[in-house]
Amino acid sequence: MTYRYVTGIFKSDSLMTIGLDFHLKNINYGGKKISLQIWDFAGESRFRFLLPGYIIGASGGIFMYDITRYSSFKNLDQWLNVISQGLKDDYNIIPILMVGGKADLSPKRTVNKEEAIEMAKSRDFIGYTECSSKSGEM
């Protein structure tokens, strides 16, 4: 999803992030030019140890899961614990958005949308949305 957002191109042969990837994207928001530094962390548990060192000073976060893989959704609280360790006092300050990926595969959904919305609300996230790298839906 990150590659699609940064480049506007869908790669059907893209591989899962190993460890982490870094991207820059310049956007205009409210008449201001903003430079985003995007750190894309692998979702596998074996890479969790990397996260705390890279999120210090973060201005926001996106929790993305695959709507067709319930396991990616149910691991959210484990990731929140890792983030709270890295951010310490800033943990409750940064805005976090929850995103369900692969919206184009909605018929194969294993995570109920209402359940995801409720989880986002219960964790005080700024919102919930779904997207698709393939279709470009955001």
Task: Report what the structure shows.
The chain has 138 residues and is an alpha/beta fold. It has one domain: 3-Layer(aba) Sandwich (Rossmann fold), CATH 3.40.50. It has 5 helices and 5 strands, in the order αββαβααβαβ. The protein has helices at residues 2-7, 51-54, 70-74, 76-87, 113-122; strands at 20-29, 32-41, 61-66, 96-101, 127-130. Strand 4 (96-101), helix 5 (113-122) and strand 5 form a beta-alpha-beta unit.
Order of strands in the sheet with most strands: 3-4-5
Q: In CATH, what is the class?
A: Alpha Beta
Q: Please estimate the helix content.
A: 25-40%
Number of helices: 5
Short recap of the structure:
It comes from marine sediment metagenome. This is GTP-binding protein. By secondary structure, the protein is α/β, with parallel strands linked by helices.
Give the SSE map:
Layout: H1 2-7, E1 20-29, E2 32-41, H2 51-54, E3 61-66, H3 70-74, H4 76-87, E4 96-101, H5 113-122, E5 127-130
Parallel strand pairs: 3-4, 4-5
Antiparallel strand pairs: 1-2
Organism: marine sediment metagenome
Keywords: GTP-binding, Nucleotide-binding
Pfam family, one: Ras
Task: Please tag this protein with its features.
Rossmann fold; alpha/beta; three-stranded parallel sheet; 5 helices; GTP-binding; Rab; Small_GTPase; 138 residues
